[in-house]
From TrEMBL:
Pathway(s) this gene product operates in, as recorded in its UniProt entry: Protein modification; protein glycosylation
GO biological process: carbohydrate metabolic process; ERAD pathway
Hydrolase recorded as keyword: yes
Native species: Tieghemiomyces parasiticus
This protein's UniProt keywords: Calcium, Disulfide bond, Glycosidase, Hydrolase, Metal-binding, Signal
Protein name as catalogued: alpha-1,2-Mannosidase
First and last residue of the signal peptide: 1-18
Signal as UniProt keyword: yes
Enzyme superclass (EC): hydrolase
Length: 495
């Protein structure tokens, strides 16, 4: 799950210290001449977006790409970009980012921090860049923020609360969501590895133990709302979209990180995916060849799918590679086709935030009477209508293309990624940088921009494009596992 990052204020003093990375070994991306020229284009886009951030929003969390101003006061974009810059061999820019991190003092953050967003972006970004570059200040800062975040687990159940600050857990944030409590185990495992202090990993992995004992309607599918104080479930909403998504992703990736195919996390993943395939993967009534990953509420199917949910084909592909289930890969390919279609069938070539499709006559079926002419045409032709038309520079479809390309070697996935990249250049580029857009079906680029450039554009979207156009031996999937913000961690123990 990714919401807009909100961090609170931090006093910041930027220092510059000379660093010399010139001699550090950098992996070579390889690949065909076509792939190489595509990769060079992505690298140039990255350099441009980074430069705009440095020029107009240095010291802030994110750039506002229309007005050229910054929001908030922590260098989230810099931290989130570190490993992308490193992997693309943008050394000068990497050094700029490290210098910004040097000036951050997490103890002096005055507002509350989101446990989840800070964990995946800040802790994850620092640890991954530390592992790649060996730059000591990155581990110092990671430990500093890790020691604040770990206080979230100080509850009667051991489930972490949603917000923390330098003084401890925020008392009124005990209503938590599945993706938030279940997507920090990779980061804390790595922090334990680098510091030699096992406490981080133990506290974080206990969440999986607790969740393994929750009784659910369908094995392994856990409702997304919980209370961290009492451990009680609130409601019965099940989804692989926002609020649920990265919990399932982390079950798999924790198994991969620790090399335990048959450990608790791996077994929980397999159980959940088997239930998912039985009850949430459905085809549209008007386009039966098209498959969707739906949500479920009180036992009723909700015929919706979000852009966020398009991470699932990649997860299923990765899972089939490591746990060896070919049926999962068939489902991955089916869902991938729909995610590609969301892009190809829009006016801009970019995928919308969410769609609704028609499915049987379930209680929550799409109300076809309320559709206008073009929506009815879209439903008949494509099997879905756009229900939320924005594109906020999200990575998930490109991320999945990368995993399917890595598994199959089929360059069709690179071609789809290249189409998406060109659409990003054409429709999201502003005079300064790149922006979210309001409507993927708009013909009017001029009025379509929003004044934001989320940090995951640099952390994930551009990195996954770069990986998609690189050889499979470049940051290979049997050596690295990517956290849910695309920060690579070296696998601890190979399966
Ligand atoms: C390990 O980390 C925890 C959490 O920050 C801390 O309370 C504990 O003192 C640390 N242990 C050692 C030996 O440093
Ligand atoms: C669509 O789903 C139905 C019900 O599961 C199934 O019988 C049918 O074969 C599917 N159609 C296609 C084209 O896959």
């Amino acid at each position: 799950m990714r919401t807009v990052f909100c961090f609170g204020l931090l006093a910041l003093a930027l220092g510059t210290v000379g660093l010399d990375f010139a001699n550090a070994a950098v992996a070579q991306p390889g690949g065909s001449a076509t792939a190489q020229s595509r990769r060079d284009a992505v690298r140039e886009t990255t350099r441009r977006a980074w430069q705009a951030y440095v020029n107009y929003a240095e010291g802030y969390d994110e750039l506002q790409p229309l007005t050229g101003s910054g929001i908030n006061k922590v260098v989230v974009t810099a931290i989130d970009s570190l490993d992308t810059l490193w992997m693309m061999d943008l050394k000068r820019e990497f050094k700029q980012a490290v210098d910004m991190v040097r000036g951050v003092n997490f103890q002096r953050v005055s507002g509350d921090m989101s446990f989840f967003e800070t964990g995946i972006r800040v802790l994850g970004g620092l640890l991954s860049a530390y592992e790649l570059s060996g730059e000591p200040v990155l581990l110092t800062k990671a430990t500093e923020i890790g020691n604040i975040l770990i206080k979230a687990f100080d509850t009667p159940t051991g489930l972490p609360v949603a917000r923390v600050n330098a003084r401890g857990p925020v008392a009124d944030s005990v209503n938590v969501v599945l993706a938030e409590i279940g997507s920090n185990q990779l980061e804390f495992a790595k922090l334990s590895e680098f510091t030699g202090n096992a406490t981080y990993q133990e506290k974080s992995v206990r969440v999986f133990d607790i969740l393994s004992r929750v009784r659910t309607r369908e094995a392994g599918l856990i409702p997304v709302h919980l209370n961290a104080q009492t451990g009680q479930l609130n409601g019965d909403y099940i989804t692989f979209g926002a609020l649920g998504d990265s919990y399932y992703e982390y079950l798999l990736k924790y198994a991969i990180l620790t090399g335990q195919r048959d450990g608790l996390a791996g077994r929980m993943y397999t159980t959940a995916i088997n239930s998912m395939k039985l009850s949430l993967v459905v085809n549209s009534s008007s386009r039966p060849d098209r498959y969707f990953l739906a949500a479920r509420s009180n036992g009723n199917l909700e015929p919706t799918m979000q852009h966020l949910t398009c991470f699932a084909p990649g997860m299923l592909s990765l899972g089939s590679q490591f746990l060896g289930d070919n049926d999962d890969f068939v489902v991955a390919q089916r869902l991938m086709q729909s995610c590609i279609a969301f892009y190809r069938e829009s006016q801009t070539g970019l995928g919308p935030e969410a769609v609704r499709f028609d499915y049987g006559d379930s209680a929550s079926a799409l109300d076809t009477d309320s559709l206008d002419l073009s929506q009815s045409a879209s439903l008949a032709r494509n099997g879905y209508v756009v229900s939320s038309p924005s594109y906020i520079l999200r990575p998930e479809t490109i991320e999945s293309l990368m995993y399917l390309y890595r598994k199959t070697g089929d360059t069709i996935y690179q071609d789809h990624g290249w189409d998406a990249y060109q659409a990003i250049e054409k429709h999201t580029r502003t005079n300064l940088a790149y922006s979210s857009i309001k409507d993927v079906n708009s013909n009017n680029d001029k009025d379509n921009h929003r004044n934001d450039m989320p940090s995951f554009f640099l952390a994930e979207t551009l990195k996954y494009l770069y990986l998609l156009f690189s050889d499979s031996k470049f940051y290979p999937l049997n050596e690295y596992v990517f956290n849910t913000e695309a920060h690579p961690f070296r696998i601890q123990k190979r399966m």
